[in-house]
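Hey, can you fold this one?
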Amino acid sequence: MRKYLTNGVVEPKYPARTVANKLDAFASKLEGWLKSEAKKGRKQRRNSRQLFNDLVVLGFEGSYDRVAAFARNWRQNQHEATKTTGRGAFVPLTFAPGEAFQFDWSEDWAVIGGERTKLQVAQFKLAHSRAFLLRAYPLQTHEMLFDAHNHAFRVLGGVPQRGIFDNMKTAVDKIKKGKARDVNMRFQVMVNHFVFEAEFCNPASGWEKGQIEKNVQDSRHRLWQVAPVFENLDALNAWLERRCIELWSELRHPQRREFTIRELWEQERGTLMAAPSAFDGLWSTPSAYRPRAWFISIATAIACQLRLPIGPLVCVCMPIAW
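Sure. Predicted structure:
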């Protein structure tokens, strides 16, 4: 007491208490990993869960939360040191069962037939239960977009009331003021076939379909970085479908942690509209179709030629006299 009075100290100060934890022995290793991961491309980085699993292999016996907190603090310190900011605040959206699904394309890689192949991946996610499906294609054409919807509604067990998309060229011909769009004819016919309402995000507003944007990031860690080698694209898509369904049972719903994604999907499935027959891309307005300048010619030994423009409702046959 006499020491504080003679020094004029009103409130005594104590040194900060430090408590040793199981991560201390691995802190330098984890920090080194975080530095190396920060230099990699966004698609190739390991997330906190993968870093935790790698530490466990080295003998770490602590919890995942401790590793995640260390990584979070390290990244925040890096943002502050470089005078940048992290992620901003957001307002979470809630969706009723069967109300909506979100769709987006992503670009990923897989080894197919011994070659590393760039793929365009169609990603679907039910906005309520968070059940998701991925399907890979070589391109983002209308035919592949239609096929992706056919398989998605088959696996998800029905069609929600509306779909949330970005302004992809296969869906939107022209972006107008506000939410007004000139919708692509072929896309609109597909929407009418499945009887859902298409809703388009504002340009450069990915947060309006934030669930599928996050699904794109998560799928790279959960699927693509651990994907085996495939014989062909069919084998890859069969593996993707099977693995997505397995993950429904393994993952907890991010907001309702007492349920798995599969448990909420089983509740939501009854609220979905029954899926009609598969959409084949045909419609009854030939004038709306602009045929591609590509023909398949088949010449037989008896001089019979058959020419088929690629597209619906157009077929020109040239038979021969027998």
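The domain at 100-269 is CATH 3.30.420.10 (Nucleotidyltransferase; domain 5). Let me know if you want another pass with a different chain boundary.
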